[in-house]
Design goal:
Elements: H1 2-20, H2 23-32, H3 40-53, E1 63-67, H4 73-82, E2 85-90, H5 93-102, E3 109-112, E4 125-131, H6 140-150, E5 151-162, H7 181-190, E6 193-200, E7 206-213
Parallel strand pairs: 1-2, 1-4, 2-3, 4-5
Antiparallel strand pairs: 5-7, 6-7
Helix pairs in contact: 3-4
The chain binds S-adenosylmethionine.
The site of S-adenosylmethionine has 19 residues, from α4.
Length: about 220
Amino acid sequence: MIHDARYKFRDASCILYLQLFSRENLCNLVVNKGTMGLLENEVELVEKLCERIKNGKEKVKIRVLDIGCGTGKLSIYLSEKTGCNVTGIDPGRESIEKAQKNSPSGKIEFEVQFAEEMTFANSTFDFVVSLKALHEMADPREALGESNRVLKARGRILVIDWVGGVAQTRSHAHAPKYFTRERLEEVLSETGFADIRIELNKGGELMLVEGEKKNLVHSVYAQ
Ligand SMILES: C[S@@+](CC[C@H](N)C(=O)[O-])C[C@H]1O[C@@H](n2cnc3c(N)ncnc32)[C@H](O)[C@@H]1O
């Protein structure tokens, strides 16, 4: 009896061990060391995003807004890496509370807000960023328009999201429902951004999309 139970325990712990130390999880553990919970497929483009934002030696701190921040993964990483002044917004109250707990220093402001209707004044931020959130927004076009409004003149948007179209990897199975590169470029242009650049990660399933706020005198998004 005891023998049986011991074997059952050993089998269960073996399965758990194998699950924990599968090749995929080991890769994630290695990648997560020093990257504060970023997933393996996010690190490459998030690093590029940070490089574009480095605060440098400016006396006035760069202000960055993270839309759809969830529990604060990107906001916290950005704040640590760049020293910028970061604000994160998300409509999920529980996520925002977790984000606040995840960043107890209070350096980052987290607020419950929808990206489509933000309370910030025009021209507040130098950068708007987002990680895997645009596709979840009910009205992404409105969210991009609002992002344009809260950006300062020549402010930049940097969005990382899944690439729409044909699935590239197993985790990319929902590809048809995401923005294609071409469509996202079009919507960014319609919502007041110019100089739009798109870069893919090595796996080809994520894109980093970048644009600069253009001066639109007659647009609904102009200030
Ligand atoms: C897949 S999660 C990504 C969260 C976070 N950026 C990360 O990478 O961990 C998508 C997030 O988008 C948020 N979201 C959904 N609709 C939104 C909206 N209208 N405005 C802002 N965020 C929204 C969700 O609440 C969720 O936290």
